[in-house]
Amino acid sequence: MSSIPSFPDDLAVQFEPYLPSANTNGFPSLTLTFATSLDSALSLGPGIQTQLSGSLTKAMTHHIRTFHSAILVGASTAISDDPGLNSRIQGAKHQPIPIVLDPNARWNITESSRVVQTAKERKGRAPFILVNSQNLDDGAVVERKKMLQNYGGGYIGINVDDSGRFKWETILSMLKQELGIESIMVEGGGNVINSLLEEEGNRRFVDNVIITIAPTWLGKGGVVVSPDRKPDPKGQYTQPRLKEVKWIPMEEDVVLCGKLNASSTLYNGP
Ligand SMILES: NC(=O)c1ccc[n+]([C@@H]2O[C@H](COP(=O)([O-])OP(=O)(O)OC[C@H]3O[C@@H](n4cnc5c(N)ncnc54)[C@H](O)[C@@H]3O)[C@@H](O)[C@H]2O)c1
Ligand SMILES: Nc1nc(=O)c(N)c(NC[C@H](O)[C@H](O)[C@H](O)COP(=O)(O)O)[nH]1
């Protein structure tokens, strides 16, 4: 994996207000970062890795990774992209811990997975994979866990809810308590991003948002960012709308920065 040229200082300074800061809600600071097309697609389809960022916005992503204790993706992204989940920016001073949400232990991570190779070469950290607690004793999980522990990673069991998912509240407090994680950069995919943008118990856990918008349409069938409108018990939908918005043009892309946790706009429906 080749190294990415450093991110220019005059651009880096523009992102400072959107970097993690100590959170008052007791959870790690959460940054949502992804690249999207003009039709809100992350990729051409499930399982298809699709390059959207240009070279400068790619460098921006790797620069931002160095400010986070952890980087988090869903199992389908891990399976389709075989990601490194490290920062490949020249002179990276800090590497985030990779976290993968994989309740059903679908990801067959091996010694030759890129993230493990990266950890072996000390260019990044070994991942922690979050599985449904019931799958911790599964033979394949036990083997993979042993392999990951050699490099400082592992598997962590979490109980799932009725829909087979982890609650974000549980994920975030567990990561803080067990791994000492203070900030998390969530990169995708669609399933993970949409669930974070939906309300959980009347709240959302996203603090900062940094979205790269590329000048292209991926067409129907793509993996799209479009959360379900989940009404609260009074039937109201709280529309997530960014505050303190900044648009930063970068070569052919534009990067949208904003904050989500300030009070959101109420949408009363048609
Ligand atoms: N453009 C980008 O910035 C970007 C970023 C990441 C991924 N991608 C692309 O997105 C696609 C994958 O997205 P996707 O939506 O298919 O899958 P995903 O990566 O969001 O993974 C979904 C899986 O993650 C797990 N998961 C998610 N939320 C969970 C929760 N709350 N509790 C427990 N488990 C949970 C489940 O196993 C679920 O099936 C790929 O094509 C990938 O290349 C693009
Ligand atoms: N910023 C950005 N621009 C893109 O054009 C694109 N396709 C991604 N995709 C994100 C990516 O799919 C997941 O975050 C990875 O899976 C991480 O992969 P690496 O660690 O870089 O190897 N991200």
TrEMBL record:
Catalyzed reactions: 2,5-diamino-6-(1-D-ribitylamino)pyrimidin-4(3H)-one 5'-phosphate + NADP(+) = 2,5-diamino-6-(1-D-ribosylamino)pyrimidin-4(3H)-one 5'-phosphate + NADPH + H(+); 2,5-diamino-6-(1-D-ribitylamino)pyrimidin-4(3H)-one 5'-phosphate + NAD(+) = 2,5-diamino-6-(1-D-ribosylamino)pyrimidin-4(3H)-one 5'-phosphate + NADH + H(+)
Pfam family name, one: RibD_C
GO molecular function annotations of the record: 5-amino-6-(5-phosphoribosylamino)uracil reductase activity
Pathway in which this enzyme or protein is active: Cofactor biosynthesis; riboflavin biosynthesis
Keyword terms of this UniProt record: NADP, Oxidoreductase, Riboflavin biosynthesis
Enzyme Commission number(s) from the entry: 1.1.1.302
BP GO terms, sorted: riboflavin biosynthetic process
Domain Bacterial bifunctional deaminase-reductase C-terminal: 28-256
Domain of life where this protein originates: Eukaryota
InterPro entries registered for this protein in UniProt: DHFR-like_dom_sf, RibDG_C, Riboflavin_Biosynth_HTPR
Function: Catalyzes an early step in riboflavin biosynthesis, the NADPH-dependent reduction of the ribose side chain of 2,5-diamino-6-ribosylamino-4(3H)-pyrimidinone 5'-phosphate, yielding 2,5-diamino-6-ribitylamino-4(3H)-pyrimidinone 5'-phosphate.
PANTHER family: 2,5-DIAMINO-6-RIBOSYLAMINO-4(3H)-PYRIMIDINONE 5'-PHOSPHATE REDUCTASE, DIHYDROFOLATE REDUCTASE FAMILY PROTEIN (AFU_ORTHOLOGUE AFUA_8G06820)
Similarity field: Belongs to the HTP reductase family.
Name of the protein in its database record: 2,5-diamino-6-ribosylamino-4(3H)-pyrimidinone 5'-phosphate reductase
Organism: Arthrobotrys conoides
Gene of this entry: RIB7
